Amino acid sequence: MKIVLATKNKGKIKEFKTLFNDLNIDILSLHDIEPPPPEIIEDGKTFFDNAFKKAKTISHYYNAIAISDDSGLVVDALGGGPGVYSARFAGENATDEDNNRKLLEELKGVPYGKRTACFKCVMVAYRPDGKWITAEGELRGVISDVPRGDKGFGYDPVFIVPETGKSLAELTVEEKNRISHRARALSTLHEKIFEVL
């Protein structure tokens, strides 16, 4: 049994493999499979739209079960932004540092109590015959004034988890995997995955 993860993001691949290592499933990423995948334009209005489109496309292309996610940062003071534009908040080829810099600039002068945000993740597992399941996860927190920590990726250095007093980039992989939005979505998906196996 194999599942194709519709991502090339090494951080996501590591989290997926860690959380699914108890299942007897061969998990492949888009780095591990030939031919190269088709380009998929993430033009959906919601995280679900993008996750569904990627999972369906990859599933049909490789004739295998595909799991895709779309996730991002939703900041209350920015009216829900950057949302589905999280990866390209500072432009098409923005680095994590570029995006974090832009986010902190946009929140300049916003008091700590109003810097609330959450990471959201929507996952879709899609089978070539059209059967699919979905799962969601959320992690609430606050955006810091400056980046903290050197672990993780994306907005992890500026996202403070109130219960820990630390940014996601200051937590170990194990600590992050227990609480992250992706871990929560994966946990729900893990419970439902047999519906599509």
**Uncertain runs with pLDDT below 50, 5 residues or more?**
none
Helix content: 25-40%
CATH architectural designation:
Alpha-Beta Complex
Mean pLDDT: 93
Shape: globular
How many strands?
A: 7
Backbone CA Rg: 17 Å
Approximately what portion of the residues adopt beta-strand conformation?
15-25%
Order of helices and strands: EHEHEHEEEEHH
- Widest sheet, order of strands: 2-1-3-4-5-6-7
The tally of domains stands at 1
SS summary, helix count: 5
SS-derived structural category? alpha/beta
The N- to C-terminal Cα distance equals 8 Å
Q: Per CATH, what is the topology? A: Maf protein
Describe this structure in words.
The chain is an alpha/beta fold. It has one domain: Alpha-Beta Complex (Maf protein), CATH 3.90.950. The protein contains 5 helices and 7 strands, in the order E-H-E-H-E-H-E-E-E-E-H-H. It has a 7-stranded mixed sheet with strand order 2-1-3-4-5-6-7. A hairpin with a 5-residue loop joins strand 4 and strand 5. Helix 4 crosses helix 5. The protein is globular and about 50 Å long. The model has no long low-confidence stretch (mean pLDDT 93).
Primary descriptors:
197 residues; alpha/beta; Maf protein; 7-stranded mixed sheet; 7 strands; globular
Question: What does this entry show, briefly?
Answer:
The chain is built from 5 helices and 7 strands; from the N terminus they run E-H-E-H-E-H-E-E-E-E-H-H. It is of the alpha/beta class and 197 residues long.
Q: Secondary-structure blueprint of this entry?
A:
Elements: E1 2-5, H1 10-19, E2 26-29, H2 47-62, E3 65-75, H3 96-106, E4 116-126, E5 132-143, E6 159-161, E7 166-167, H4 173-179, H5 181-192
Parallel strand pairs: 1-2, 1-3
Antiparallel strand pairs: 3-4, 4-5, 5-6, 6-7
Helix pairs in contact: 4-5
